[in-house]
Amino acid sequence: MSKTDDKTASSGKPKSMTRRLLLISAAVVGGGLAVGAGYIQNKASRNKAFVLTPGKGEAAFGAWFTIDPNGIVTAMSPHQEMGQGIMSLVASLIAEELDASPAQMRVIQAPVNTAYSNATMLLDGLPFRPDDHGLLAEGARWTMRRILEAVGINATGGSSSTRNVIDAVQHAAAGARQLLLQAAAAKLAVPQGELSIDNGVIRHTSGKSVGFGDVATAAAGMPLNPGTPKPRSQYRLLGKTGMPRIDVPSKTDGSAQFGIDVRLPGQLYAAIRHSPVFGGTVKSVNFKDKSAAIKGTVTGKNFVAAIATSYFAAKQAVDAAQVVWDEGANANLNSADIFARYAKALDAGEGFVYEKRGDVSRPANGKTVKAEYRAPFLAHATMEPLNCTVLHTGSKCDIWCGNQAPLLIKWLAGKAAGLESEAIEVHTLMMGGGFGRKFEMDVINEAIEIARSMPNVPVQTIWSREEDMQHDFYRPAALGRFEATLDDKGMPQRWVTHIAGPSIMAQATARMAGMAGGGMPDKTNVEGATFLPYALPALEVRHSLVDAGVPVGFWRSVGHSFTAFFVESFIDECAAAAGQDPLTYRLALLAANADDPTAQRFAAVLQTAAKMAGWGAPVAPLAGHKVGRGIAVAESFHSIVAHVAEVAVDAKGAVKVTKVFSALDCGFALDPVNSRAQIRSGVHFGLTAALFGEIEIEKGRVKQSNFLDYQMLTLGSAPVVEVEIINSGAELGGLGEPGVPPIAPAVANAIAAATGNFLHKMPFNTAELLASGVA
Amino acid sequence: MELSINGKVQPIQSDPATPLLWVLRDELNLVGTKFGCGVRACGACTVLVDGAAQRSCLLPVSAVEGKKITTIEGLSPDRSHALQKAWIKHQVPQCGYCQSGFLMAASALLAANPRPTTEQINKSLSNICRCGTYDAMRAAIQDVVEGTV
After folding, report:
1. Of A7, A419, A606, A685, whose CB is crowded by the most CB atoms within 10 A?
2. What is the ipTM for the molecules in this complex?
3. Among the partner residues B14, B34, B99, nearest to A252 by beta-carbon distance
4. How far does B75 lie from chain A, in Å, by closest CA?
């Protein structure tokens, strides 16, 4: 086991928590939190467990949808919408089973109920390769499922939403289809076998027809049992054009409601300022702004806030406040020291071993390749700055916000609200981006504390962009050392990985579940660096836990966001040392594991992306630039993605990514249009990080503050991304995150191809390129 | 003070130094215009002032008195603007938060220059989209330019 940090050891918690508690806490914060009720209960009991309360004239079909007299089908999405398209996907699953018309489909956020919890994301948090169906892996999954069944947490993340809901939704909708047909047969007095459904109309062979609205009430009066979903070969929507996203029109006219758009009668606005130093506290505060617009002020442990009739007035008041901070233990923390601590841990060679096989001791002969890679802290920087609206009446607390875990809020907000969980109601709105930031309770607890100071008045707390960027739970900074020894054919015979950094799980269990989980292995530390399908006969993957005090959290693709850069860059360095083409080298490493289906899938996406890009042909020249092409592949969240990037580097070292070709294997793309959009989204998100992303710590503070110094990709700098889908038929994979990991190494490898310089540090710094002699 | 917003003249109570963004959002409940950065860097708050795209987060309302302001709510009454149709056709928005600003910036560009070059598009649409909807956005704008929506 890795060492726990000092704070954990002295926290006063009992040393031996029960295994059950530990597992629950691990589950609560595990690997991406796309929690829904999925596979943990059997389908029949799940559908019977909770039935929607229908509105007037509506008929309810279990937990999943209602039908109104006009035949409008309203689906319940257990998952929260942050741009990934999950709400429309849930509706399209139902539309497919019912043979409904896309025009009659609606979707709303499901009520906050354990019926909608799911285990999929949390099960992904277990440290096993996804296709490992061995005794230990399956046993652990079974145990975890049982525990999650009792917990029933509901959240969205880990690219798991579709995988989580598809089984239950399809079975329920298939069952409901039979009830609709049965009710229609009775109404038309014809045998059910002579009926079919065409675009939402139930037709008899005679030409007579009824709509869903005509028979929904009768159908819903009969017991709903799980039906048999259609085979994929009979899909009309799924896997083809899909269904247009239901939320899109509202996002073209300003009518889509995000958390920040909540407007309640008598609502006031709060602006907030946190201790600039992590862990600092308020010593004293003098609110100097006494203007009439200011309705109240709040002094929290680590923040001050002003409440006013507009956000602008509140912001001015909070900016004008004179605050003396106790900067606490982190006042001298800086990035250089943090990386020095990582390096020291790597030098010591200790830590937790996540994967090991064969003899990894350095042999006397053979060419040894070594590299050290570094990734910085990163902020989420969702376009919608953090906000939360709270109405606290003294006996009830209503919370409005975009969030990735409504049930978690209901459970965890009680302390701040001074109320039992039952008195807390969570209203989930659309998120202007989530990326993992909107699991966290900080913004919610503080908004509650602020609103409690003004009972019966709804208060919307908004963080400025600077607060949002400087008080995040960051993608952990990490340092990784890789060493491989090549045989006489250039193939790695031993492969040693050692990564140092903080544990997201350790911090998240402490802040969310109130327990110190610092001693647990944390899959996210090394995910993407373990269970590689390449033939690596002797291998060790080790991680040293070094937590310097910077808050860390789940950031789109989590550990994969840096491990893919490390691993896939190092593969190229090994290929170069072996004098081989990077694609050929990867395919050889995969061919040596040819009996592994994952290796075959890796090879297929690599070959597809390479073919799209014309791998092997010269890259189109660009005057004044060195051009190059790079390839990388990664499996994350059960999907496999390969990218080929083309870059142009000018004489000053400026990098332009000119084109990206992507191949995706998510098993089966239910909605190909949105699947491509999600992969493009991942490319742009990962490219932003690769080219620009860096949060630096100076004197315990975050140096960057806004988009001016935390740069984003724009239309002019974003490459065209072409995406091809391979429907391999493997188990379904996620889409929100898997496009992110391989783009950084694809670009790094392309820069290496163009300039001869391998990159070892994200973001890809122009000055560093210059120093290494590009110009 | 009075402001002309989406063809309607209305009285304003806010302090004249208040940025237009916060008057729109907090006084007039026109929440389609978004707060993203507060430093004119992201463009989520873009509106039209006398037809020209302006970032409203640092624009005092006193500076736009007597001018015609158009927000996303006024782009068309029924999503019938060619850009809105193209945005739906190409399924541009993901999270959607930045899209009002992009649509307003694009509408100002195309009104002034129906056949902009790629360079002109990139310069006028320097807004930030964190979801990376740029590919779909390019295709949608192309459709409007070609008149093929």
Report:
1. A685
2. 0.98
3. B99
4. 7
